[in-house]
Design goal:
The chain is α/β, with parallel strands linked by helices. It is 37% helix and 21% strand. Helix 1 (7-21) packs parallel to helix 7 (152-163) and helix 8 (214-229) crosses helix 12 (314-329).
């Protein structure tokens, strides 16, 4: 049976499935119990599973993650919620110095099956530090898998898949589409494989690679480009940023011979920079144009009065791709 769910509902259902199917799974986070989380992703789970499985923690991100690491090392499967991705900075010591390194440090003797969930991204008119898109910080840390769904179906399947592995996963949830996107989500347990991208729109003229909420802006831009100019854009949803699916990227770019990366994080040192590098290393002689990035700017996420100027809008994506194609005709 399939129902139309939004991202919040799909994630809530995934957590319900995991808690019900495995006694070793427990949730930790600020206000996730009685209040159901700041975005209500954990709503009703406290009443259903109790305070030993859905744990309201003190306001200490370092403490939450440190405790979860200890739990994971001792056979439990904690799923941590950080209220906003920008609040993760105090926990980076635990994440980068310990969580990502423990398998290597113990030569494989210990595994750390720990998921850290966090809402991320701009576009919801939130104040400073509530709209961070700093996935590149964790993308650069070997030992961590970084996952970002763009729709409810993938969100449920990716979260369940993350729980079935034995390594830590950073699971980032785009706030902008928590409730604005709905699609069919099966009621039963299913998985979407980590490390596998999805072609969400087929085309032969140009490949656009993106993830999270930006996928929807890219899809709108692709439709406009096809209607106005007859340009057929292939849209690739990366889904897992690390390890990313080079096989699917390579197949798509070899077909179209042009590539654009769209992300809302800052330009310099972003995930897009790595994608540009590997595409040009592997396919330089086959590309008809340099790989282009359409991103946020090298500034902190601005106040909400000018937030829309920061994010790559549909119109900006259309304009940038149009300029890229025009320059090739000269």
């Amino acid at each position: 049976m399939e129902r139309e769910l939004n991202l919040v509902q799909a994630l809530n259902e995934a957590l319900d499935v995991l808690l019900a199917s495995d006694d070793q799974v427990l949730l930790l986070g600020e206000d996730i119990g009685i209040n159901g989380g700041v975005f209500r992703v954990t709503e009703n789970l406290y009443n259903k599973f109790g305070d030993r499985r859905v744990v309201d923690t003190p306001l200490s991100e370092a403490g939450i993650v440190g405790c979860a690491i200890g739990m994971a090392l001792n056979g439990l499967k904690p799923i941590v919620e950080i209220e906003f991705f920008g609040f993760i900075y105090p926990a980076l010591e635990q994440i980068l110095s310990h969580l990502s390194r423990l398998r290597m440090r113990t030569q494989g003797k210990y595994e750390v099956p720990l998921i850290i969930r966090a809402p991320y991204g701009a576009g919801v008119r939130a104040p400073e530090l509530h709209s961070e898109s700093i996935e590149a910080l964790l993308f650069q840390s070997p030992g961590l898998q970084v996952v970002i769904p763009s729709n409810p179906y993938d969100a449920k399947g990716l979260l369940i898949a993350a729980s079935e592995g034995s390594d830590p996963v950073i699971f980032l949830e785009p706030m902008k589409i928590y409730r604005s996107v709905r699609n069919h989500v099966p009621e039963h347990r299913y998985t979407v494989p980590l490390g596998k991208a999805s072609i969400v729109r087929e085309g032969q003229d140009i490949t656009v690679i993106s993830w999270g909420a930006m996928i929807w802006n890219v899809m709108q831009a692709a439709e406009q480009l096809e209607k106005s100019q007859g340009v057929h854009v292939e849209v690739l949803d990366l889904r897992t940023l690390y390890p990313f699916d080079m096989e699917t990227i390579e197949a798509s770019v070899r077909k179209t011979q042009r590539a654009v990366i769209v992300h809302e994080a800052a330009l310099t040192g972003g995930v897009g920079a790595e994608l540009v590098a590997v595409i040009q290393e592997r396919m330089f002689s086959e590309l008809k144009s340099p790989v282009k990035r359409i991103t946020g700017f090298d500034v902190p996420i601005p106040q909400f009065s000018i937030e829309d100027y920061y994010l790559p809008s549909t119109d900006r994506i259309v304009h940038e791709i149009d300029q890229m194609l025009v320059s090739l005709k000269r």
